[in-house]
Amino acid sequence: KKEMKKLSQLPQSEFYEALKSQVLIWSGKYCGPRYHGSGSPLFMARGVVNGSPRDFTMMLWDSTRTREYNNYCLGRKDVIVINDDISHGGLSGAKVIKSETKIPFTSL
User: Fold this and answer.
1) Contacting residues for 60 by C-beta, under 8 A, at least 6 apart
2) Each residue of 20-41: pLDDT tens digit?
3) What is the pTM of this model?
């Protein structure tokens, strides 16, 4: 909270430059209706990703690259690939994935 408050007082160009060198992370709890997993903590992050939108999309689409951006991922695999136009330069894709994630700051 303190870091975001400090950064929010910077001019917009300096704020953007600061986000290139650090990632802001917030955590909290879900306050809506109870369901399976709703007791787990929530995390939100803000930062700047260097690279083109296409490169970023390719990184997120490729299940073998998950550890590049998610240190808590224990594994992710494609279960069913319905449409893979993204890998061939297209703009759309759909797949079902299975992912296991260690919840940060917990023993879960």
Assistant:
1) 69
2) 888 777 788 888 888 877 777 7
3) 0.63
